[in-house]
Design goal:
The radius of gyration is 32 Å and the shape is elongated. 19% of the residues lie in helices and 47% in strands.
């Protein structure tokens, strides 16, 4: 009898416990604290808890890299974000738990609460599977395909997105106002932005084009039209302060194309041909995007342009040449518009996540 019991106990100990993978987004203290709390609370469920640093990624990584196991969970404990927990079934990929935690709680309380939510969901899943009927027998494995068929590429296989490389693109449409030296002129423009990174700070660049319709400038009885078009290339840093607010700063340069055409020359003089110039510009921008949904944001920004060359337009008067118009060297600019992003981090706002 003793030998029979010993023989039966050996295979029982060899059974691998179910695996629960938990991705924690937050500080190193949040990751290590979550690992200890999860291992302690889930010990009675006899599961193997694997805790990994999410490296600032959002819950989309649960779908990007599904791994075999009993369940997967995502815990958001990043500073400035609303704490929340998402637990999915490792087989069906359906949500087992989706909960927002109190924002005013300390990190320790948030860790304990998140661990309780994850382990309770795991216990409920284990109880459900224990009561469910046994699964049907597996289907017979089809014979291997011929070598020629295996060499053909499959169109349905989509490349996995690596967790350490996240690109995001933005298309911005905006109205703008600038003081070019003769009062504010209003125009519009568009820009294309590209950022890369996983954490709260993202690096990228902004390429913009803007234009200002011709406006009248009057002096000494003369009237001229002044029109400007500009292009900028600005390396930038974007800060994902929260899921809604994302400030950014950009520094770079570009060029302005300016056209000055006489409309009414001074009395007793003749109008000359229109004059054009291309000026090198140094530029700096400070702005913020307020995300209104998964991919649409409101854009507000202030820009300071500095002309690296000076121009002065003069007119002939009975007293001699006099300055008519001199473009400003420092030109303040304000922008307001909409931003549409794609191909990267398009998380919903914390309010939308809580409603789920």
């Amino acid at each position: 009898m003793v030998s029979v019991l010993g023989t039966m106990a050996s295979p029982c100990r060899a059974v691998t416990p179910p695996i629960v993978r938990v991705y924690v987004a937050g500080s190193p203290e949040a990751v290590s604290g979550s690992r200890e709390a999860l291992e302690d609370r889930c010990a009675r469920s006899e599961v193997a808890v694997v805790v990994r640093d999410a490296a600032g990624a959002d819950e989309a990584l649960l779908a990007q890299s599904p791994a075999p196991g009993l369940a997967q969970a995502y815990v958001d404990l990043r500073p400035g974000s609303a704490p929340r927990v998402v637990v999915v079934d490792g087989e069906t990929r359906k949500d087992l738990e989706r909960r927002s935690l109190p924002e005013d709680a300390s990190l320790e309380i948030s860790i304990e609460t998140a661990a309780h939510v994850v382990c309770a969901a795991v216990e409920s899943l284990l109880a459900t599977r224990a009561a469910a009927p046994p699964p049907p027998p597996p289907q017979p494995v089809p014979p291997p395909a011929p070598a020629a068929a295996r060499e053909q590429p499959t169109e349905s296989a989509a490349p996995e997105l690596p967790l350490d490389s996240k690109w995001s693109s933005q298309l911005n449409l905006f109205a703008t106002g600038a003081n070019l030296g003769a009062g504010f002129q209003f125009g519009g423009g568009a820009s294309f932005g590209l950022t890369h990174g996983n954490g709260a700070l993202r690096f990228g660049a902004l390429l913009s084009i803007s234009g200002y319709p011709a406006a009248d400038v009057e002096a000494e009885g003369a009237v001229a039209n002044v029109g400007v078009m500009g292009a900028r290339l600005l390396p930038m840093i974007e800060w994902h302060a929260t899921q809604v607010v994302r400030p950014f700063v950009a520094l770079g340069g570009g060029a302005d194309w300016m056209r000055v055409a006489a409309e009414y020359p001074p009395p007793g003089t003749m109008a000359q041909a229109a004059s054009t110039s291309v000026d090198a510009i140094a530029a700096g921008m400070l702005g913020v995007r307020f995300h209104l949904g998964s991919s649409v944001a409101a854009l507000l920004a202030l820009d300071a342009d500095v002309a690296l060359t000076r121009h002065s337009y003069v007119i002939e008067t009975p007293q001699g040449r006099e300055s008519f118009f001199e473009p400003a060297r420092v030109r303040p600019v304000a922008l307001s518009g909409l931003s549409v992003s794609w191909g990267g981090d398009t998380r919903p706002s914390s309010q939308q996540e809580a409603r789920r």
